[in-house]
Write a structure and sequence with these properties.
The chain is of the alpha/beta class and 323 residues long. Helix content is 42%, strand content 18%. The strands form two sheets. Strands 3-2-1-4-5-10-11 form a seven-stranded mixed beta sheet, sandwiched between helices. The longest helix is centred in the middle third of the chain and has 22 residues. It is elongated, with a radius of gyration of 22 Å. It binds 6-O-phosphono-beta-D-fructofuranose. The site of 6-O-phosphono-beta-D-fructofuranose has 10 residues, from loops.
Length: 323
């Protein structure tokens, strides 16, 4: 391997810049050339490349977003699109790739490595934390703290007005963000897709709290929860319980922004180094992750096929603490 390309794909996540920095600097440290690919697989298809030097990644470790920009490429899903990407790589003499993103990014990478003999190593970057084979994905910790900050503020106004809030958090079809943020903010209930909470159960939780003289309520709703989202469940409860003064808040894309936390910066730096090391070690079609504080190497096949489970013990903890 002489020249590697690095790209960020899918939803951006805080800490992606720290990962890019680590990849670029580790490549240069090992006398490799490194090329930044703009806008994920879109840039690969269109040859949107920039040669990167060490100074190109100065002053970015603390920044949210991604200096390489990101996209969810439709064209890369097609055989023709991937052929174009391969031709661009050949022309630019890029002989390996580091892709930073989530499961969509890795699914694309896996097919690409099956079709062409190009080594690809993935770094998990998504606020959803929904990737099998790593305890944490880059961006999750920052997003969690962003959610906590927002919910704490909502709690202030909820208590002032004696209100019940339904707050919807991101996570696609996983409940990691919702579960942890719910525990950390002392939510009265947490609705996640991994566990079906029936309206009746929710009513019971709420009634308990109000009988115990709680003067505000927070229900965290994962966007992927089977209830249909915060507005739907809030309407249902409102119909049955006009005594509650209900409001809904959808936190939205603010959850993806902001300076990465220390934890995300360190994870991103560790995994950036590990990704280039893995390529130098002739690995291909794998994700580098963190398991019990150590770097793990997981084949794309495994990360894509397996579903990461939420910690059951956290669910039980909330059942106890929300009485
Ligand atoms: O995967 C990250 C994520 O923020 C999800 O939590 C969310 O469902 C999705 O991306 C939103 O995607 P978009 O920015 O394309 O609307």
């Amino acid at each position: 391997i002489k020249k590697i390309g690095v790209l960020t794909s899918g939803g951006d996540a805080p800490g992606m810049n720290a990962a890019i920095r680590a990849v670029v600097r580790t490549a240069i440290y090992n006398n490799l050339e490194v090329v930044g690919v703009k806008q994920g697989y879109e840039g690969l298809i269109h040859g949107d490349f920039m040669t990167m030097q060490s100074y190109d990644v100065s002053n970015i470790i603390q920044k949210g977003g991604t200096i390489l920009c990101s996209a969810r490429s439709q064209e890369f899903r097609s055989v023709e699109g991937r052929k174009k990407a391969y031709d661009q790589m050949l022309a630019a003499k890029i002989d390996a790739l580091v892709v930073i993103g989530g499961d969509g990014t890795f699914s694309g990478a896996r097919i690409f490595t099956q079709e062409y003999d190009i080594p690809v190593v993935g770094i998990p970057g998504t606020i959803d934390n929904d990737l099998y084979g790593t305890d944490y994905t880059i961006g999750y910790d920052t997003a969690l703290n962003t959610v906590i900050d927002a919910v704490d503020k909502i709690r202030d106004t909820a208590s002032a007005h004696n209100r019940l809030f339904f707050i919807e958090v991101m996570g696609r079809d996983a409940g990691f963000l919702a579960l942890r943020s719910g525990i950390a903010t002392g939510a009265e209930a947490i609705l996640i897709p991994e566990r079906q909470t029936h309206t009746k159960d929710l009513e019971k939780y709420l009634a308990k709290g109000y009988k115990g003289h709680k003067n505000s309520g927070i229900v965290i709703v994962a966007e992927g929860d089977k209830s249909g989202g915060a507005y739907t469940i809030a309407k249902e409860i409102e119909k049955k319980h006009p005594e509650y003064d209900i409001r809904v808040s959808i936190l939205g894309h603010m959850q993806r922004g902001g300076a990465p936390s220390a934890f995300d910066r360190v994870t991103a730096s560790t995994l950036g180094v590990a990704a280039v090391d893995a390529l130098l070690d002739d690995q291909k079609s794998i994700m580098v992750g963190m398991v019990h504080g150590e770097v793990s190497h997981v084949p794309f096949n495994k990360t894509i096929k397996n579903k990461k489970k939420v910690k059951e013990s956290l669910v039980s903890i909330n059942d106890i603490l929300s009485i």
